[in-house]
Amino acid sequence: MVSTYHQYISSPLWEGRRYGKEQFFSPLKDMGEQTILIEKNEENKNDSYRQRTKYDDQVDCYFSSSNLSSLIGNQDSYLEGKLNSADDVDCYVFSYIQRALYDRMGISSKITIRLENLTEGCDYDLLVYDKDGNQIGIAQKNGDGSSEWTLPEWDHGRDYVIRVENRNGEAADTEGTYRIQITEERTQEQSGVLDRTVWEDKTGYAKEVDRLHDEQYHALPEEDRYQGDESAEELLKRMASGERLSKQELEYLKIYANLHDYERAEAGDRLQNKLYPEIVDRLKQAGIELKGKVWELEINAYGKVTISGELTEEEKEQAEKILEEEFEDQLWDTYMQASGMDSKRYNQISAYREISSFLQKSTNGQYKWEDIYKDTDKSGNVKIAGLPSKLCELLNSQESNGKYEQLRDDIFLLWSAGGWSEENNQTAKGWTDFRVKYQANDTKMNIVG
Q1: Per-residue confidence of the chain (449 residues) as pLDDT tens digits?
Q2: Looking at the domain assignment, is residue 212 inside a domain?
Q3: Same-domain check for residues 161 and 38
Q4: What per-residue string of b and e applies to 228-267 under the rule 16 or more CB within 10 Å gives b?
Q5: In 3-state terms, what secondary structure has residue 113?
Q6: Crossing angle for the helix pair 232-240 and 259-270, to the nearest 10 degrees
Q7: Do 290 and 385 share a domain, yes or no?
Q8: C-alpha atoms less than 13 angstroms from C-alpha of 329 in its C-beta half-sphere
Q9: If I label 80, which of 91, 213, 417, 434 is the partner at 20 to 30 A Cα–Cα?
């Protein structure tokens, strides 16, 4: 059996690509050791399945992970997190990388994901999605404040998203925490080699997903079942426009909606019902009256907000300052979550944004992405250069924390995407020129593009 685990600097979530000779290995971690990952709310952006975040291991200070697969090897391992508000959600990536090896060895395995609420009164749901965004499990309550779900036998995937959310938007204990544990049970098959024909049958898989969803729907209390005739797609369209859905409609979407589509609708709902009203109120407090006016805003990768439209120059300048200081991050994340861009472009733009924002703050704008270049040591290892020596040392170190590992990952991701040229050190356009854009009036804010 494999006794160690290579934690790679994460590549795009579902593509699984690595960076060839330039790939960087984090330190090895024995899979039998306890792993305790802590969600640091002030740093983590894990409200979307596409956001990639590193979590430091509290036991092994030299190991961090963006993937919960490191929890499998020890029954005492766990991730601890918390929801910051009633509408906060936490998304985690889980890759079952051992499965292909087990198939060849004739070993069947059972994976159980457990959610434990550590604060009395918290009632959170844990949902599991496959790599295509199909919901394949809602954790079942155990009666002791915990819930769990065992991946179904007909599922033989490798990549999953685990989503923790507050049940029905009820009040959340922002100081309360939860824990996620992932356990594995293995059985040696008598035949020696597992037959994967059923698992690889996409039509059969889709039928099993549909059957599971119907079972979940009929298991709901009658008063919670949606009895309307609108499809999940039609309900999501209403949700994205800012219309409030009923409890029954939301329960229906929790079962049948694809995660990718649900997140986009969720972002639209948040923009219209929470974020924009907060912006309007804040600008009114500053004496900026928006009634009857149409205006636009743009945000670049460095967080610079530019406003145009039917505001005075003084109002524009004041509004730009307020939005940059108080709302810029939320506006950027909402736009990205609501966008229909493919994961490759999403990851490149997000990587450029993280690097640009970090350099703006850490070097006071003295260094930018264009200053970073590759350096190769005598052993042929590619190193990050062009930044202050101390910063380069942290980015190139195998003992850096999750934050610097993520930045290093972003740099290598952009290099692999053609974001650097030895001839002229020019960056690839498309993500460097990317802008988040909104148009607004006194009643509504819309995403442009």
Answers
A1: 333 333 333 333 333 333 344 444 455 566 678 899 988 766 668 889 988 788 888 888 777 888 898 898 788 999 999 888 878 899 999 998 877 777 777 777 889 999 997 777 677 899 999 999 999 999 998 878 789 999 998 888 889 999 999 876 666 666 778 999 999 888 876 565 555 554 566 788 999 999 999 999 999 999 999 999 999 999 999 999 999 999 999 999 999 999 999 999 999 999 999 999 999 999 999 999 888 999 999 999 889 999 999 999 999 999 999 999 999 999 999 999 998 888 888 989 999 999 998 998 899 989 999 899 988 878 778 889 999 999 999 998 877 778 888 899 899 888 888 754 444 444 455 678 899 999 998 889 999 97
A2: no
A3: yes
A4: eeeebeebbebbbebeebeeebbbbbbbbbbbbbbbbbbb
A5: strand
A6: 30
A7: yes
A8: 10
A9: 213
User: Into how many domains does the chain fold?
Assistant: 3
Residue 315 and residue 178 share a domain: no
Question: What are the residues facing 181 on neighbouring strands?
Answer: 114
Pairing of β 78-81 and β 36-38: parallel
Q: Are 296 and 308 spatial neighbours (Cβ–Cβ below 8 Å)?
A: yes
247 and 284 inside one domain: no
Helix (H, G, I), strand (E, B) or coil at 434: coil
- 229 and 144 belong to one structural domain: no
Is 140 inside any structural domain? Answer: yes
Residue 397, number of CB atoms within 10 A of its CB: 13
Domain shared by 337 and 423, yes or no: yes
Query: What are the CB-based long-range contacts (under 8 Å, 24+) for 378-384?
Result: 380/21, 382/21, 382/22, 384/408, 384/411
Distance (Å, whole) CA 125 – CA 139: 7
pTM exceeding the 0.90 threshold for the entire prediction: no
The tokens describing 36, both together, are: 């305790």
- For residue 56, the enclosing domain spans 31-196
Side chain identity at 106, as an amino acid letter? G
**Burial tier of 360 (Cβ tally within 10 Å: 0-12, 13-18, 19+):** middle
Handedness of CA 349, 91, 150, 231 (dihedral sign): negative
Is 312 found in the same domain as 243? no
Q: Are residues 167 and 275 in the same domain?
A: no
Place of tokens 């009895």: 227
Q: Which two tokens stand for residue 11?
A: 């590549």
Please say whether the beta carbons of 57 and 36 come within 8 A: yes
